[in-house]
Amino acid sequence: MLYTDLGNRLGEINVLLRLAAVLRELDRDRAVKILNDAVRLSIDIGNQLARIDALDALGDIYMASGDRKTAADVWSSALRTAREHGMPREEGKLADKVRRVR
Fold first, then answer.
1. Helix, strand or coil, per DSSP, at residue 7
2. How far apart are the C-alpha atoms of 32 and 35, rounded to whole Å?
3. CATH number of the domain at 2-101, out of 3.40.50.150, 1.10.3720.10, 1.25.40.10, 3.40.50.300?
4. Rounded CA separation 33/39 (Å)
């Protein structure tokens, strides 16, 4: 809430990513909601790396729960974003995840 009060949207996104990582094992549905919130915030502020990070974490949650198709779809979306914005490190990591799941 402090980052929200300060108007620091990137700080808010980073907290959401960390919170989702903690909740991932305890409350999957809440972690998914939080990560979707992080994706929306990152789109709002135009931070593509934060968007990719949130989508990657979301894909990890789906994969861990056995939902391979949704994981692949989410990672593919993150991969498109990485390619569109010239982020080779993220592109390589996500391309590998998509390859392994399909």
1. coil
2. 5
3. 1.25.40.10
4. 10
Please report the pLDDT score of residue 24 as a whole number: 93
DSSP 24: T
Residue 11: CB partners within 8 Å, gap ≥ 6? 3
Domain range annotation of the chain: 2-101
State the pLDDT at residue 1: 73
Place of tokens 């990137």: 10
User: What tens-digit pLDDT sequence spans the chain (102 residues)?
Assistant: 777 778 888 989 999 999 999 999 899 999 999 999 999 999 999 999 999 999 999 999 999 999 999 999 999 999 999 999 999 999 999 999 999 998
Angle between helices 9-23 and 48-64 (to 10 degrees): 10
Q: Tell me the two tokens of residue 101.
A: 């799941």
The token duo for 20 is: 């989702």
